[in-house]
Design brief:
Helix content: 40-55%
Distance between the termini: 34 Å
Strand order of the largest sheet: 4-3-5-12-6
Number of strands: 12
Number of helices: 12
Strand content: 15-25%
Structural class: alpha/beta
Largest sheet: 5 strands, mixed
Length: 321
């Protein structure tokens, strides 16, 4: 049994049991991949897949358990390599951050600038999407960290560490009638067309929930995942928008006006997501602390350890769920 065979098994599962796609992703021949899976089954003396002639239908019960262990084994192998690089004193490598547009555009630029100055040999990559998208990227190993609000359905193998809170403002064009109000109310907001975030964002449910709790039903005319897109349509007069306070750049958004709305809506908490058992390089801990100074290395390590322990207790035979 080899790590290569375990990689082949995991990639086949990742590609929905499609041998052709798995072979293409691994840059190997389809017959060679199939042969290695057969050798693995012969070594383990079990069938990993239920087959219909030559087609893979699903994982067998044994295959499902072996696949879970294979994923953990490959993760451990990656961690061994990262630990070796760390102790070799290398301040070079890569850091992939999965985040939402708002965080990438408004929260991260200064942090990334400081990080790049301190670690010029670390290659940074940003992947953008909804909170659910970025959590999946971390869970699948496609990103090292996620920075977003808590997803509606968070993956069980991603630990979420609270960073900071986002309060809300209401954006509107200059000269809008609401600007005459000394203090906003939900009733006043409900009288105007509303632009807000997409359903994939937990902030939307909190916003709509605040209206519904008062028996109000706002006229939502547009949903979007991008704060700058939302602001574009506010400028066009399509409606007013409820967005995080950091999304208003007064030096650039000169045609818009912002009014405080934190008394109307619950704040959102931004979390850093880290895959359980993922080995973090020293520069990754440094990035986390630059973003959120209270998340020092010892705090992050303890949170990940506690998270792994809780998960193990949940999955232990006979454990309460």
């Amino acid at each position: 049994m080899t790590l290569q065979q375990l990689r082949y098994l995991c990639e086949v599962v990742r590609q929905d049991l499609n041998i052709s796609r798995a072979a293409e992703a691994l840059h190997v021949s389809q017959p060679g991949l199939s042969r290695q899976l057969q050798l693995l089954e012969r070594e383990l003396e079990v069938e990993l897949f239920v087959r219909n002639r030559k087609r893979l239908v699903r994982l067998s019960p044994a295959g499902s358990e072996i696949h879970r262990n294979a994923e953990r084994t490959l993760e451990s192998a990656r961690n061994i390599k990262e630990a070796a690089r760390e102790h070799a004193g290398e301040d070079q490598g890569a850091l992939t951050i999965a985040t939402t547009h708002t965080q990438a555009r408004y929260a991260l630029p200064e942090v990334i600038r400081r990080f790049a100055q301190r670690y010029p040999q670390v290659q940074l990559s940003l992947r953008q999407g909804s909170p659910g998208d970025v959590s999946y990227l971390v869970a699948s190993g496609s990103a090292d960290l996620s920075i977003a609000t808590e997803p509606i359905d968070p993956p069980s193998d991603v630990a979420l560490l609270p960073c900071y809170q986002l309060h809300r403002i209401v954006l509107m064009p200059a000269g809008h009638p609401l600007l005459k109000s000394k203090r906003l109310t939900l009733e006043k907001l409900a009288a105007y067309p509303l632009i807000t975030y997409d359903y994939a964002f937990i902030g939307r449910s909190k916003t709509v929930g605040a209206f519904e709790a008062r028996g109000l039903h706002p006229n939502i005319v547009l949903n979007a995942i991008d704060a700058d897109v939302i602001k574009t349509y506010v400028e066009l007069g399509l409606g007013i928008a409820i967005v995080p306070d950091m999304a208003c750049d007064r030096s650039r958004d000169k045609t818009l006006r912002a009014m405080d709305a934190k008394h109307l809506f619950e704040p959102n908490t931004i979390h850093i997501g880290i895959r359980r058992n993922h080995y973090l390089r020293g520069y990754m801990y440094a990035f986390i602390e630059m973003l959120s100074p209270h998340l020092k290395r010892a705090v992050v390590e303890q949170a990940i350890t506690e998270s792994v322990t809780r998960q193990a207790q949940k999955t232990r035979p006979g454990a309460l769920t």
